[in-house]
């Protein structure tokens, strides 16, 4: 169980008792999923280990997209895939937040738009 799940199992009941009437239903569902994930409350699976031959039982996972237990492998897979895509050179990742009003203009004029953004950023970083 992740430390997030453990912390939620300990503190979520009191939190929900105090503020539950103001917590959106979707958030309560996520808390329920994370706190019950792999505990056995969602059922479980019995299997025999190919290596040692022993029988093992594991609790079912919740599968919720917000659950750190369930998303750990997906996150690791995504990170490995992104790492494989890295070019073998030193580089930087720069992220700009463009105001909503300018996004369609930027999409249709990418060359000029990105050049203008980088020019302004370079001028501001020089001052
Ligand atoms: Zn889960």
Layout: helices, strands, pairs:
Layout (H helix, E strand, L loop, with lengths): L2 H17 L5 H12 L7 E5 L6 E5 L8 H18 L14 H9 L1 H17 L1
Antiparallel strand pairs: 1-2
Helix pairs in contact: 1-2, 4-5
The structure holds zinc ion.
The site of zinc ion has 8 residues, from helix 3.
List keywords for this structure.
single chain, flat, 2 domains, 2 strands, Zn_Tnp, Transposase zinc-binding domain-containing protein, mainly alpha, two-stranded antiparallel ribbon
Q: Can you offer a commentary on this structure?
A:
With 127 residues, this protein is mainly α. The protein has two domains: 3-77, no CATH class; 92-127. The protein has five helices and two strands, in the order H-H-E-E-H-H-H. The mean pLDDT is 91. The structure holds zinc ion (ZN). Residues 33, 37, 61-62, 64, 67, 69-70 line the site of zinc ion (ZN).
